[in-house]
Amino acid sequence: MRIAINVPQLPESVQDATVLQWRKQPGEAVAKGEVLVELETDKVVLEVPASDSGILAELIKRPGDVVHGGQQLAVVDTAGTLAAGPLPVAVEPQTAVVVPIQAEQPAAVRQAVTQAMSPAVRRLLNEHGLEPSQIGSNGGRITKQDVLDYLAQRQSAAVAESPQPEIRAKPQSTVCADERGERRVPMTRLRSRIAERMMQSQHTTATLTTFNEVNLQKIFDLRNAYKARFEKEHKVKLGFMSFFVKAVVEALKRFPIVNASIEDSEIVYHDFYDIGIAVSTDRGLVVPILRDADSLDFGAIERAVAEFSQKAREGRLSYEELTGGTFSITNGGIFGSLLSTPIL
Q: Where do the H-state alpha helices sit in 165-216?
């Protein structure tokens, strides 16, 4: 039986998504629950699993296509057999990029290598039309740096092999080849939405920035005195973010108006403390929410922050983890900033 793989129902605030990359190709076996395709929204990357086991028979949508909730993405043949005739391919012939695959490398090995790679690595390979077999690795598992090194080497080789422009010298003057260039890279949906929301915020909110200097020497001393014991007990390093979260919660308790929001003509006071923690990723800035921060101890806060950072880098944050914050904080000091003027 041939079953359809559809776009899952998107949250109310998300109108559409973009097909990022296919984890499987037509003709490959898929298991129930196995991720088939990644969809990029303006907040998170959604992984769409197979609803049943079988063979991926047809791709309806290609990488880069914009899709809406309920639209068909692919067809899976649960009988485990393929219909006669050629299968549709994910790219048109005139735009297809053919890359060599090592003949001695079995398909099962290539599949295992692909599944072991992180989402960032798979995304890079997909964007540049590369196969895992083209990339060398130091420890057997391909890393993002391995792919970047390969791309840099390929670019250097292309520059070296390209014909050099003819330079005609003028009398009493020296003419040098113009080495300046420019590159155009499409923005991810996340970066595009960040830019849109920042401009909207600048036009619809009254922004005020104030700076106060605080002596953190006692915090430094306290952290240095207990960080080894803390890590041994809680299995996570003691950073400064837990101190910042505790300080913010205490301040919001003393000044509830700062933890409030405006809806129409009313001020809504929030008697809970869901703190947004800004996290920088390769795709852009995201702000996962630390729920009920006032009830968490230092260990729980540090573990949550570490988990948020890991999931953000891997594109595994859910919509629920990105909505509903009452107050957000960020630490610009890790980028060397002395003062910052953040935009809502």
A: 189-204
